[in-house]
Amino acid sequence: MTVESQLRFPDLPSRRPADVLRRRQFLQGALLLGLGGLAGCTRAASPTLMAAPETLPLLWRRTLPKPWRFTPLRSASQLDTGLPEQADLLALPDGWISALPEDAWQPLQADSLRQRLSSEAVAFLETFTPARSSALLPLSLSPWVLLFRGADHVQTARDQGWQVLLDPGLAGQLVLPASPRLLVSLAERMEGPDSLRRLRRAAKVFDDRHALNWLLQGKAKAAVLPLARCMATLRSDPRVSAVLPEQGAPLNWTLLMRPAASREPLPQAWVEKAWSSPLLGRLLAEGWVPPLPRRALEPMQTQVPERLRSLVLPPSRVMERCWNLPPLSPSDRIRLRDQWEQSAP
Q1: What is each CA distance from 116 to 110, 122, 141, 203, 209, in whole angstroms?
Q2: Which of 141, 186, 277, 302 has a CA positioned 20 to 30 A from the CA of residue 333?
């Protein structure tokens, strides 16, 4: 046998038309089954919780029940074109909520959780329209605090509160939030003319996302941050101190919402776990405070370092002076924009 004959395939018998038809029907059926399988895989994909940076503590995220998975959001700009298609739940700061249309959400159906909320959380929800309120569940609250590297201005901050931000010794050494609305709110509680303009002039940078880096590297003397975002540093670095002014502070809320396209029910037991012992105490130690009545939180405060307890669970007189930043109406937005532009240094 020659080499050429070894490389040739043997002749195949010719197919009859009926054989060809049956084969075609078989292939078409297999294709349809394959497509159906793919569709089934799509429907069975793991439900997804997405959250803004530094919003949900890792300790709690690790308890997310299967088949749920967590995917972080990088920044608020990801919501500019609408909610992420893969999101079945979103955990967002209250400042990110007002930019989203009402028809992007659906009711959470979490009445048993809402019944446990503190009076502060209920009052906050009442600042939204009924449609928005029914679609939101507060998960935590954290006051914005004054953060200092070194002790030079700590006592002054305790005496003067937010007014310390205008101290000449801090001029050009402040890391302030990149939120005009928050800065306007703080300036309204300061004495003297042109408080907002003076506050903006005193800033080194507007960068709350990297405020701790500026502070720890010695490039700034003070910063303004939510307590929950600097609690780990306060626990580990004795050079850093925080002051919650007696006059109160704006509150930073974390809210849970369900996108309108989601078909996944809220994993209610997962939320209840964070609001119950023993996880509740461990979360309090990280400065993450659930929106529960004080009587439910006080038994857990022993897990917080003693020097930080008055920050995590402030005295009632201080909490009563704290304030929310409610949603802005269109006219409020115009007023805020004009106020910000007119205060340019």
Answers
A1: 10, 10, 15, 40, 32
A2: 141
